[in-house]
Amino acid sequence: MIIVMSPTATQHEIDNVIARVTGAGLKVHLSEGKLRTIIGLIGEKKLMAQLPLEAMAGVEKAISVTAGYKLVSREVKSEDTVIDIGGVIVGGNNLVVMAGPCAVESREQLLESAQIVKNAGAQFLRGGAYKPRTSPYSFQGLEEEGLKMLAEAREITGLKVVTEVVDIQSVAVVSAYADVLQIGARNMQNFQLLKAVGKSGMPVLLKRGMAATINEWMHAAEYILSEGNFNVMFCERGIRTFEDYTRNTLDLSAVAALKNLSHLPVIVDPSHGTGVWKLVTPMAKAAVAGGADGLMIEVHPNPAEALSDGSQSLTPTNFQTLMHEVGLIAAAVGRKMA
Ligand code: PEP
Ligand code: MN
Fold first, then answer.
1. Shortest CA distance to 84 belongs to which of 188, 233, 223?
2. Is the domain of 124 the same as that of 36?
3. Ligand 1 proximal residues by C-beta, below 6 Å
4. Please, where are the H alpha helices in 68-132?
5. Distance, CA 313 to ligand 1 centroid (Å)?
6. What per-residue confidence (pLDDT) applies to 195?
7. Closest ligand by atom to 240 CA
8. Based on the domain organization, do 46 and 151 belong to the same domain?
9. Do the domain assignments include residue 78?
């Protein structure tokens, strides 16, 4: 349920409504827009049904939300969400770049990668310490040792760290080293994990499941927001279609759709989205032109030697080219590269 207050509602009337609904055992999410205040109700539907909301002073209308999500939607919050991650701003007019290797492979590889992406102008270092691999025989990641290397790279470069958390048990340890918790495509509907990262209060990068609709993806984000954590970014990383030239089909229409449906920032990962390094820069440019708030790009000092995803990883030179070309597009669409 969403309570839309009248533009002329007084603070006293707003406070009254909040007191009434919280008194009935519901939680509220307040969105104070320029024109009006919107009160999102969180809790059991039958408690809401018992309240004479539209009879209360200052209430314009009470809308029952039939979708299973509300906190993620623009109806509840019309202004874009802007997330401050240790001084790096995601959302609004900013364009952020998260870059680094698919996996943390060694201290040398990671520190070199960090320097490369920092020098080219990225704000975040990415790199998996826990890798959800298709085969159990593939490199599984360095786990906590890898997290320590990420933290060291942050210390040296000042880059923020985004890294994947694969299960509930590792939320605490990943939170201790990272700035952003990444939920991978394979875990987008791991609802217990979504609740756990919601409770952690950490910024979350929620990747799209490889067979998830936009609607399912928004529901997944709602799990995190419903725990009181509004620091969520969507990350489009391609979906599985009949096309097999590319690893996945990068769905750039999802960026525009999400920007309409939701107030949360949208990041695009053209590396997993295409699986082909030559396609990464063109798709990165298209994503920025289409309204993405940021990019996630796999970069490796030597892609030919990478332990995972080498064929979609950019060399240092190719990454510099990407940053230069994306910068031109960003300027054309009024985005500031943070
Ligand atoms: C990754 O970013 O390294 C990754 C595993 O991505 P995805 O979950 O999108 O496959
Ligand atoms: Mn990868």
1. 233
2. no
3. 102, 128, 132, 184-186, 207, 237, 272
4. 107-120
5. 13
6. 98
7. 1
8. no
9. no
Which 3 state secondary structure label does DSSP give 100? strand
pLDDT tens-digit series, residues 124-147: 999 999 999 999 999 999 999 999
List phi, psi (to 5°) of 27: -100, 155
Is residue 130 domain-resident? yes
Q: Say how many Å lie between the CA of residue 27 and the centre of ligand 2.
A: 39
Region class of 164: left (phi > 0), else alpha (psi between -120 and 50), else beta: beta
Q: What is the 3-state secondary structure (H, E, C) of 294-330?
A: EEEEEECCCHHHCCCCHHHCECHHHHHHHHHHHHHHH
What residue spans of the chain are helical by DSSP H?
11-23, 45-49, 107-120, 144-157, 171-177, 191-200, 214-225, 253-261, 270-274, 277-289, 316-332
Q: Is 230 found in the same domain as 135? A: yes
- Does 42 share its domain with 128? no
Residue 71 resides in a domain: no
Model's pTM, two decimal places?
0.88
Q: Which residue do the tokens 């060399």 mark?
A: 315
Number of domains in the chain: 2
Ligand closest in space to the Cα of 180: 1
In a domain, 317, yes or no: yes
The pLDDT value recorded for residue 49 is 85
Q: Which of 231, 171, 174 is nearest to 201 (CA)?
A: 231
Tokens standing for residue 325: 């070309």
Predicted confidence at residue 63, as pLDDT, reads 85
Kindly report the number of other CB atoms within 10 A of residue 244's CB atom.
8
How far apart are the CA of 102 and the centre of ligand 2, in A?
4
Which of 190, 205, 237, when mutated, tests ligand 1's pocket best, judged by the most ligand atoms within 8 Å of its CB?
Answer: 237
Task: Tell me the best of 110, 113, 164 to mutate to test the pocket of ligand 1, counting ligand atoms within 8 Å of each CB and taking the most.
Answer: 164
SS3 77: coil
Q: Whose CA is nearest to atom 8 of ligand 1?
A: 184
Instruction: Note residues around ion ligand 2 (Cβ under 5 angstroms).
Output: 102, 309
Helix (H, G, I), strand (E, B) or coil at 98: strand
Six token digits for residue 338: 């943070």
